[in-house]
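Task: fold both queries, return tokens.
Query 1:
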Amino acid sequence: MNTRMVNENFISTLTYIGKCKDPLASKERWIDLSGLEEKEAIAIREIESIGVGVTAEAQKVFNDLSKTKIESIGVGVAAEAPKSFDAFSKTYPIEQDLVVEILPVPVMRARDIIVAANMALKKKIFAQKISRATNGAYFLMDEKMRKVAVFKPEEEEDGCSRKGEKANREVAAYLLDFPKDSEEDGFGGVPPTTMVRCMDFKGDREKRWAKGSLQQFIPNKKWYVHGERSDAIFSIQDFQKMTLLDIRYGNTDRNQDNILNKEGKLIPIDHGECFPTEFDRYRLDWTVWEMAEIPYLTEMVEYVKTLDVDKDLEILRTNGIELGGRAVFVFRVQHMVLKLGVLGGNVPKDIGHLLTHPLSGGTSESLGTLFHKCMTRNPTDVTLLMDSLHDSIKGVLQWAREERVLRREIKSIGVGVTAEAQKIFNDLSKTLPVQWVNKDILVSGKVRIRSPYHDDCVTGGTATARNQIKAVLKKVRQELQLGTGGN
């Protein structure tokens, strides 16, 4: 009798076929082992890559050699392609793996996606090209024709100085989105993303390896129509986490198409345009959202305190990702902007405006103009340049904060209104953008509360928003009654 022992974690599907009289009768017991061999092969490769009882130096030599071998395969010179493919296929036979992860540090949830995509490709279920994508992007399917991942091959990247920049940045955005929870979801919600080589994903006659980024597919429920947004469906926590990511990464293309709605949870995607080499191409559409004027929550402030740019760069190097000298410098400045802004009490809109366009009023300085001025004063000394940038950025953010506070104070005083009305306004302003319109309170630019500020005086906006405001009105009336000795 042949016995094969497997770890229970490798069994992804059990199918109940029927009830047998004798539970020990092997011919009458059934189990669906679909996908078991693929997962077992992955585990064996992981075990084989760890030397037992060897020194750290020896293990590093092994890792460096294995990385060099993988990086030398695939998209090189045509004459070397057959030789490279033969060497690669000895480790990863095409019959076994059509999609292979190549990051030194594995993305565990990606393994299930890779197994599902491999099984589909073996059955000639090829990838579907995403027609609306600017660069080459493909949906990888599973056996049931369900979308499981988005693959972006390096060879189809446009608008970058060297192939692979955008794929590396897609992966970097996930690697640096820490800490990860038990489901491998990062702090900011970037879907699991890894670097892979994919074979025959389009069903081409010429079978060759294509390298690129692979990201878990997230179904999206449309949250805007013809430019009309419904961003109020997202929580303030999800919104602020996205802004932290965008400021930290220097996102140059955060538009509404790369913000997904997963049953009310905000999921940020498409980070190939992050980690720029300049300071003047940012696009952050969220600066006009109403939530952009709400101060950062304590949770966000504490998170920013933990960030360390040198640790970030080490994580990327460990996974074989080098941003490049100029991009590394900009990344360090982005960290500086994030910490000075969030820890200094600025709201997302303050920081977003510094990045995207000159501030109005007493100064006309953007991050780009600040950099060029500081560069003129310190053209060669990087330390002096960073110190000068630090002081200039701090000054502009402080000015923006003070001007915003002054505007809010002016708007927060109702002329000729009762103490009750002013208290209602103050309580609402703690969590929502509000302003006086004569003696009416306008909340989020949509809901209006008219004098005498009772439930039946609330109009406009959604039913949910009106109910939220009515709850505040009730609380204020109760507090005033208690304060005056009322019942």
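Query 1 returned. Query 2:
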Amino acid sequence: MEFYGISISVICSVLFTALLINGQTADECGGYAADVMFLLDTSSSIEIDDFRKQLQFTQDVVKIFDIGRERTKVGVALFSDTVYPQFDLNAYNSKGHIVDRIGKIGYRGGRTNTAEALSFLRTKVFTQDQVRQGVPRIAIVLTDGLSNYPDETVRESKELHLNGITVFVIGIGNQTDTNELKAIASNPDSEYAFHVNNFDALYSVKKTLAVKTCKVEFIEPVIQQDILDTDKFFPGRLPCTISIVYGADVRSASTRTTRQIMSFFTLLNDRLQDDLYKVRSAQVINNCPTSRRYVPTPRKGKNYATLLLNMRQASPASLPAIKNPGKAMSILLVDTSIADLASSSKEVLRARFKRIDTFVVVVGTEASRGVLERLLRFRVHTASFGQHVFAVDNYDKLEAAISPLLGYIKKLKCS
């Protein structure tokens, strides 16, 4: 399998008697000094047996390091809904004690709050009073899925890199996203991002990872006042071009409601045409068969995943024939609870990684703020949530969402 320029071949029956990588041995770690923190995913998507394989992998990598007070120090933390520190960089100076302690770590379960885990590294682990000056600061992150708040994850990754922390990341399984792994990893991601098909295949990268770790050099932190803040969302001039896809499920709507929806889309688009240099737009109405990818969910509410999939595929940002789609957006109309929330949220993330921003206009009160938080992966209390969710009481008041939508869109600049 080829991934990020790293070739990984899985050989299940061969016993290696020497740790050889491109003619180099793990002896090259001898005398190397570094502060290395492992961040291990303990979310509910990981089975207990796989979690233990993750611990075994961590033990195997540690065994390759030259552990000591003046050499390599190791710490471990778990993350799911929050961070669960296990032991810090200064807890043990003996390889045997570290390996033994890792073997006693217990499974937790929960969601995948990668952003908080990365923030923990920056604010609690690699601080002036915890690490040695002039010694490489290295994080090794293992995860099996998309983070709950991708934009926060990207922001925290950037801040880690600017603080001189080298980040290796290993994505495990088919639920990870290439773009998110690249964002977490240090540059170039071909050197620092890995992927394996499953937890059994972790052994195939442990020696490569260990030797690469032992070659990392100290990076002086960058003092930067204006670190990218994704909650501020591109303040500045108008975009030269904006590509926008409108989407609504009208299968159970009355003729009057359908006309109100179409009128809303038309009025908003006309206002954009008045204010912007160029607008490309499309409308996706959910009156077609359900995608094979998503099976209708027999729960209260509507299934939106197929609609979101079709909206993403209709966006100029997804069309190779369009060289410069400009700033890409989707505006989804939601008038009930979301039955297929997990699938719909994944489609929002897939759009985001295509640089398509998803906005939601909520009609009525059936779709709660908590549901919308999970759909968009923005926390309710953040500016990002407020800039992406626009609510009206009913379809008669739908046009009231036009002005606040325009107010935000006008702040966007050319992509």
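Both queries returned. Flag for query 2: The longest helix spans residues 255-275.
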